[in-house]
Design goal:
90 residues; mainly alpha; Methane Monooxygenase Hydroxylase, Chain G, domain 1; two-stranded antiparallel sheet; 3 helices; elongated
């Protein structure tokens, strides 16, 4: 199958399928990161929370995201820096 209809090549259709899979996987990782950040901020504000464990988990997620090119490396470094600065203020 070289061509289907005008403007619908099989390679374009395959790329669209791959993009849908990647988009859903990336979205899942990004939402997990957002919830971790919310929990980290809550742990900083409360006395019984453990922000050190949360920041380590967040940094691991950010490293994986930059390795998989979901986030640019500078963005993940910037987020790590800002989150660690939050704990120093509190």
């Amino acid at each position: 199958m070289a061509k289907l209809k005008t403007g619908r090549h099989t390679s374009a259709m395959k790329e669209a399928r791959q993009n849908r899979k990647k988009r859903s996987a990336n979205r899942k990782i990004k939402t997990a990161l957002k919830t971790e950040i919310k929990q980290y901020k809550a742990a900083i504000s409360e006395k019984g929370g453990k922000p050190a464990e949360k920041i380590a988990n967040i940094q691991g997620i950010l490293d994986k995201m930059s390795k998989k090119k979901i986030f640019h490396g500078n963005k993940s470094d910037r987020l790590k820096s800002r989150l660690s600065a939050l704990s120093k203020k509190a």
